[in-house]
Amino acid sequence: MRDVAIIGVSQTKFGELWDISFRDLVTEAGLKAVADADIEGAEIEAMFVGNMTAGLFVQQEHIASLIADHAGLTPMPCTRVEAACASGGLALRSGIMAVASGYHDIVISAGVEKMTDVVDPTPAIATASDQEWEAQQGVTFPSLYAMIAKRHMHQYGTTREQLAMFSVINHKNGALNPLAQFPMEITVDQVLNSSRVADPLRLLDCSPVTDGAAAVILCPAEDARKYTDTPIYVKASAQASGTIALHDRRDITTIDSSVHAARTAYDMAGLEPKDIQAVEVHDCFSINGLLAIEDLGFVEKGQAGPAVEDGITQRDGKIPVNPSGGLKSRGHPLGATGIAQTAEMVWQLRGEAGKRQIDGIEVGMTHNIGGTGGTAAVHIFGR
Amino acid sequence: MRDVAIIGVSQTKFGELWDISFRDLVTEAGLKAVADADIEGAEIEAMFVGNMTAGLFVQQEHIASLIADHAGLTPMPCTRVEAACASGGLALRSGIMAVASGYHDIVISAGVEKMTDVVDPTPAIATASDQEWEAQQGVTFPSLYAMIAKRHMHQYGTTREQLAMFSVINHKNGALNPLAQFPMEITVDQVLNSSRVADPLRLLDCSPVTDGAAAVILCPAEDARKYTDTPIYVKASAQASGTIALHDRRDITTIDSSVHAARTAYDMAGLEPKDIQAVEVHDCFSINGLLAIEDLGFVEKGQAGPAVEDGITQRDGKIPVNPSGGLKSRGHPLGATGIAQTAEMVWQLRGEAGKRQIDGIEVGMTHNIGGTGGTAAVHIFGR
């Protein structure tokens, strides 16, 4: 198995991008990544693109071909991978396997979602849950995560304020990220007084509806220094599945797929949670940010609330979480999120994260999940 | 790069399967493949599943997680890949890269589509074309392929009867395939007198709307004989992209992605067209079967019509095409087709194809395309 390195990354501005089409959006991310890697587009040998549901959002499947065509990359092999909100993480992993296998040398893994071209994205997003047992009964994602939050509060004494604090810290970081959809600070009071979405979750506990794209360029680790002085190495690429529906789980306060993927990733990298110096977690809702830091092993199960309150997830804390602003502040274009997380971690490891830079980190992690944890992808990167 | 072998295959009955759900259908294919490989489900380390648009057909994305859950395979990593009607071919290729890379040893690549749960599948199928330049203008797939057929007839003198002959030969083979959707013989007259769909294409030039699933089990070539006395080896796995829309092509009578993928496949395998002893081609419409045998190099460009008329594509001809019955007779559950083609070729190479067996073949090819050739996957297999 060949080791793999990252030589270029990009992210478009995230937001309500009504004046840019799906195909232009992802092409912009690709061009920026190519420029970042300082290569020619023609050097790329294959593309993998993560996208959850262009079929439902913009009536377009077969998007990898569309992108290859629009970006002038034909006849390059291009493949779409989908795992709901973890589509980006799996596009990255597919790209890594393509390089590791020797099938391709330089590979681009991208992610894209255009969510604001429909009146109501809720039915499309609900297709990430179990259609027969959840979506068709009227359950939506805020309500699924609300059930998880209620149970976590009941079981571990997690408070409404601790949930709010997770959003507040995200926005504190995101305020320093010019590519974020909502780059402004918020307060605990603002979260607690925002509209109720699904009790106990309020509007400012929820990641927004976002258009956006991101891309990562991969090559064999042994070649990386030909292209850049600051290659970032893939130390682990892990993935796991869980039950798609909540009702079949042994415990809805733990996302088993995150636990499994993290365990596999730590084993691959020969590292432990204490070795991780920054992490981008999948906080589609504030409660999911709390679950993540427990499931990835940074705190004991049930202890995320107090840990966040104590400030350990701040940029200068023991385990900085979501320096980018996370899904809450940076935005959450479903299929692009896993790749945007990777771009942020690469910028952090290169020391190029501007005002939100965490000092001198050597090892970082990304955590991307689909649905309520039917899929989880965990990656570890190092300088 | 590790070489890869196939140790198990399966296909469900193809047809209008109203009394089986999406999740049961693909699980049935998986269980049959596991039985065929004579392994335990728990030995499988990863799954890739090709599906074009469960989002539009059954309102379910995130299907790899759904399948892992329903089939009891969690926490195994499961990934959906999509490239319209080439989704199955790409799921196979992703599985091959996963094994070749060393990331996983035993991998299942499946394909599934449940098309008959909607009143009209046409809008969903049209998302494989360019939404802005084709689908939104009212163009559908029969009309796109009708334009190709018209041009091929004009440019090369291909006759209406030669197109019909392709369907007739498919059905002659498919009549011997108990898993085919339409296992009966048809005549040239029947094709010529069937309802007009998009001139010059008639109903019996068109592959049907089909529910179905298929699966393939892969392992490192060096381990294959531990599992079976008849391993089939992957000699080449190639993929290419073309323009998604027809209007941008240099010539609509050639599918460049097929040409590129075939060229790559021949190079990888160190073989030439004359070495291929049977081929499963992507005949979503009769004209596409003709293009395929030209683009794959079995006859000169423009000569497919006379070649089919001369009988070279019959099971006892120079290059037997679609011993399974092809998309026309076996049926075409979009995301399952590339895997079903593989299953057929494995049965042929093992000598297990029953009444439709081609005698003593050693090397076979599969050709799976998405849309009008925005994606093509070509695989070569050998004993």
Structural write-up:
The structure is a homodimer of 383-residue chains. In chain A, 66% of the residues are buried. The two termini of chain A are 20 Å apart. The mean pLDDT of chain A is 97. By secondary structure, chain A is an alpha/beta fold. A nine-stranded mixed sheet of chain A has the order 3-2-4-7-1-8-11-10-9, sandwiched between helices. Chain A has helices at 22-37, 54-57, 63-70, 87-101, 122-126, 141-156, 160-174, 188-193, 224-227, 256-269, 286-295, 304-309, 326-330, 337-350; strands spanning 4-11, 46-50, 78-82, 107-114, 196-198, 201-202, 211-220, 232-241, 279-280, 363-370, 375-382. Chain A folds into two domains: 4-118 and 210-227, 3-Layer(aba) Sandwich (Peroxisomal Thiolase, Chain A, domain 1); 122-208 and 234-382, Peroxisomal Thiolase, Chain A, domain 1 (3-Layer(aba) Sandwich). In chain A, helix 4 packs across helix 14 (337-350) and helix 7 crosses helix 11 (286-295). Chain A is 36% helix and 18% strand. In chain A, a hairpin with a 4-residue loop joins strand 10 (363-370) and strand 11. The interface between A and B is large, with 67 and 67 residues. Strand 3 of chain A pairs antiparallel with strand 3 of chain B, so a sheet runs across the interface.
| SS-based class of chain A | alpha/beta
Q: pLDDT under 50 segments of chain A (min length 5)?
A: none
Helix content of chain A: 25-40%
Please state the average pLDDT score of chain A. Answer: 97
- What would CATH call the architecture of the largest domain in chain A? 3-Layer(aba) Sandwich
Strand order of the largest sheet of chain A: 3-2-4-7-1-8-11-10-9
Radius of gyration of chain A: 19 Å
CATH-derived topology of the largest domain in chain A: Peroxisomal Thiolase, Chain A, domain 1
Q: List the secondary-structure elements of chain A in sequence, H or E.
A: EHEHHEHEHHHHEEEHEHEHHHHEE
Please count the helical segments of chain A.
14
